[in-house]
Amino acid sequence: MEKTILTGIRPTGRLHLGHFFGATKNWVELQDKYQSFFEIADVQALTDNFDNPTKVRENVREIAIDLLSIGIDPNKSIMFIQSMIPEIAELTIFYSNLVTMARLYRNPTIKTEIAQKKAIFGNHGESVTYGFVGYPVSQAADITAFNGELVPVGEDQLPLIEQCREIVRKFNSIYGDTLKEPEPYLSKTTRIKGLDGNDKMGKSLGNAIYLRDSEEIITKKIMNAVTDSNKIKKNDPANPDKCMVYYYHQLVNHTNLDVVCSECRKGSRGCVQCKKELIAHMMNFLKPIQEKAHYYENHPEVVDAILLDGTKKAQKVAKETMKKVKKAIKIDYYS
Question: Using CA of residue 84, residue 85, residue 88, residue 91, what is the dihedral sign?
């Protein structure tokens, strides 16, 4: 039997190139090989957006549109809304008894994210919520609710998967062999850099190109992208390895990449020319995605029907898992 994959994305904004090349492009390929569950993790999005639920709600459909537009096929996979699966919340409560707060604070991913909050918000970064620190427990519930055997992740998320594996092992050791222990499925692609050269492309960093950005917006962003600071004049030779414009050429330019590189090194290519070429390649690359997105934007009822159907299918699987879990912990009263 084919293995089951569970992965998800938080609906806090539309998808950008970092999401695409770093994760979701891989999801499209995986759905042809595995039984795939794609979760729109609205509950997890509320862990640090609890004071802005409208933002989360509005982006559920936007994320679904983006996923459908890049090739997630509801005939091959199951896309669902996390909050509509109450079994996930139940599992989170049961699993929380199996993890100490000290262990959660030692999780490298959580430690890093708390440090980032402190760097941004100062002393307010200390005020992390129970829900935020308990994120790995919630993620373990996401995975196990659907018998996830493989979880596509980047290296920075490996500690979260290990935390899930620990929870599963402890549950099974106490209550009997009930849950499947998942394995990480490492992404083939490293994290995509931002237009400013930052190692991470992110919504909050303002350095991202979104899949549905207009040509006008993309032009403005690319024209301001970081290039080799040693190139002062148009004909100065430059190092393409220090240029974000060339970095993005490597992602979307499949016609004259060698020419771009050699001309840059020789000084026969100006930055303005290079950026304009990148804009053309970028729009050509995004065209089929944006055409599909335009259809779904004009037919929201189609998107809603896909989400509802996928969520109903996910609910059936989660209910079966919960039956096994409650029987194992002997709270299956009157069943």
Answer: positive
